[in-house]
Amino acid sequence: MNNQNLAIKIKDLRNRKGFSQERLSEESKLSLRTIQRIEKGESVPRGDTLIKLTQALGVTPEDLLEWADVEDQGYLTLLNLSALTGLLFNPLLGIIIPLVMWILKKDKVKFVNNYGKKIISFQITWTMLVYVVFMVATRGSSIKFDFNLFDIVFALINFRVNEQLIYIVLVAILYLYNLILILENSRRIKKGKQSWYLPSILFLK
Question: In angstroms, rounded to a whole number, what is the distance separating the alpha carbons of residues 136 and 145?
């Protein structure tokens, strides 16, 4: 990690704690001038200074030094594509897998915290919509949790003209929209563009 990246991380951690530079100076027993030089990237904390600083910020030296202030497009793309598990296997997996990936890297890789919250919130919203359609279709008599994209395609191929056809089509449209959104956001991430996940209820803020 270069000086500037380390400086950004320290400032970010200080702000998360709600500390001013003066407060961090008091908590770490380091001079205000030292804090200012570190946050400007003019000085790299080492030894006792690093230990005092990380203790005041509530992190370990390893956490601070291993944090990468880079946009890991590969991980961001993988995080986005992990939502496909919800389409291919089970809608709940489309929430669980991105959630685990977000927790593991939210403080280590740039943009993962922001992207992860958006992806998870969208997948929760989407899953709720799918289950609502199923509840309406069955009049609340039963809810099937273990369905996937192949079940939807099979239902469309073998449909019979009845009142439930509209619900099958609605679920198919929801699946298609989610798939398009995942693929489009993967393309946008690779090009360094901002991704979007709409509509979405912000469950994670």
Answer: 15
**Residue 113 three-state SS:** helix
Given a contact cutoff of 8 angstroms between Cβ atoms, the answer to whether 4 and 36 are in contact is no
Q: For residue range 102-129, what is the model confidence (pLDDT) as tens digits?
A: 999 887 777 888 889 999 999 999 999 9
Question: What residues pair up with 109 in beta bridges, in sequence order?
Answer: 68
The three state secondary structure string of 79-107 is: HHHCCHHHHHCCCCHHHHHHHHHHHHHCC
Q: Is 147 left (phi over 0), alpha (psi -120 to 50) or beta?
A: beta
Residue 43 backbone zone (phi > 0: left; psi -120 to 50: alpha; other: beta): beta
Q: Is the pTM of this model over 0.70?
A: no
